Amino acid sequence: MTEEIGLIGSFNQLFTLSFFNVFLLIVCLVSYLLIRYTITFFTIYFKFKHLPGYVSFFPPLIDSMIHRKIYVHHLYDCALNSFKNNPSAKVVKIQLGTFSQIHISNDENLIREILVKKYKTVSKGNLFEPVGIFGPNIFSADSNDPIWRKHRTLANPIFSSSSHLKNVFRVTLEECKKMIKFWKSIYGSESDGTIRKVNISNELKSITLDVINRVAFDYDVGIFDKDAAHRDGIHDWINNLLNGLIYNFVLPKYLLSKSELLSAIFIVLFAGFETSSTSLTFMLRMLAKDQKLQEEILKEINQEIDNIDDITFEIITNKLPLLTSFIKEVLRTKTPIGTGGRIVLKKNGEVIGGVHYPKDTHIGVSYYSQHYFAKNGLDEFNPYRFLTTKSDSSSNELEKSDNNEFENDGKGPMGELSINLATDKLLPFSIGPRDCIGKRMALLEMKLILVFLLKNYKLKVPKGLETQQDSIKETYVVTRTIFEPYLVDFETRL
Ligand code: HEM
């Protein structure tokens, strides 16, 4: 009996001891991690001590939660506020715990140095690997990776040539007509053709998706020929589409392997419809809210065309300056992609603006901040801002240098419908060899859809929903987005 008690006692002692040991082990581990974290934090802090900016001891997600913001949006705002607080700074740092990023803005030459001159030494590295779900693609691959060059060289003419852009024009016009028929079938229409409470956030996704499929892949999915339930299962649909599309890609198929083709299709779909559709959503919402501006733009459209069938490629690319200025101002104030993420790849580091940055330094070209200060724009929305933009000979030279090396002429077939850092002080599509391959297509498509809708309908915020719609918050998850839909009434113009 005594022996038994003794055994139980020593077992309990052992258990208590080991429990204590485990506890001790956890405390030691946590302390070790905390010390390591603190050392790394201070190492980074002292490395960039000379730069103004925002520093928090907390890691990105916790710091964003403290500020009640989504991480990406928080990062953009940290950079913007740092520039606001240090108006003469061209470079600021953001340090969230052990993550740090150097943000560049406010200086066109510095932006050019990174995005144009040093695009190979300050490049994407493996920063965008997660976007390469099907393998490296044109967006995710590093500028030194032959895959990027191959894809870019093959895809560039498809998104820039005159004949391709005319095809974008033709297809977009056809899709606009189908879209209205589809809206009437799912939302119903009044006797005069008015369609109410259209969920533009959803609807514009459908049209940009249909257009990109037809022009980039020569594949007509006919999203407006199907029912709403089918359309709403959009993500399943994209997956099926990716597989179905593979043999219909316009790129010369024999030059790409099957997996290269899949990754190319994936990224063009991914990059090509979300940005255009959300930008258009913001544009329609702003016009629905501002009747005076809407009528002014309509007046400009009416001076060029009596009937929507009179619309031509030349009118969209060379005329309607107020509408072009409005589009630029929405892209300025609601920048779809806020930062161009890069990393210093050169073994011994790279000099940017005369300052040396070590290898692996994260660099963010802050399009978001650049737009805030563009033309002293600050927060004020001014749709007339870009009406006065004029190129002179020095800006022409800069425009040429900002264009990517795959193009001969910056404007190409796009006439006046282009955005330039030199004259507009904007770069929603970035600049240089890694700029947006679909920039011309996006501008053309957005402007044509706006003309089509304004010519046929008066856009209004639905009665009784003004306050609810005003309360919808826009944020950045990857691109600028909203979680609740914007709704618009489309009243037939008699
Ligand atoms: C409003 C619409 C759009 C905006 C604002 C936009 C913006 C951008 C920006 C800022 C970049 C550069 C990102 C960086 O700095 O890393 C980019 C790259 C890219 N965009 Fe767009 N984009 C739009 C529409 C499109 C469309 C319609 C397509 C489809 C053809 C497209 C395809 C791409 C591709 C493939 C790249 C990667 C190019 C490369 O790295 O060589 N985008 N876009």
UniProtKB/TrEMBL annotation:
Give the residue range of the signal peptide. Answer: none
Membrane spanning residue stretches: 14-35, 261-284
A single Gene Ontology molecular function, please? monooxygenase activity
Superkingdom of origin: Eukaryota
* Chain spans, region Disordered: 392-412
The cross-references to PROSITE patterns, in alphabetical order and at most eight, read: CYTOCHROME_P450
- Which residues take part in binding heme? 436
Q: Does the keyword Heme apply?
A: yes
- Claim: Lipoprotein is one of the keywords in the record: no
Q: Which UniProt keywords apply?
A: Heme, Iron, Membrane, Metal-binding, Monooxygenase, Oxidoreductase, Transmembrane, Transmembrane helix
What cofactor is needed? heme
The UniProt similarity line reads: Belongs to the cytochrome P450 family.
This protein is called what? Cytochrome p450 family protein
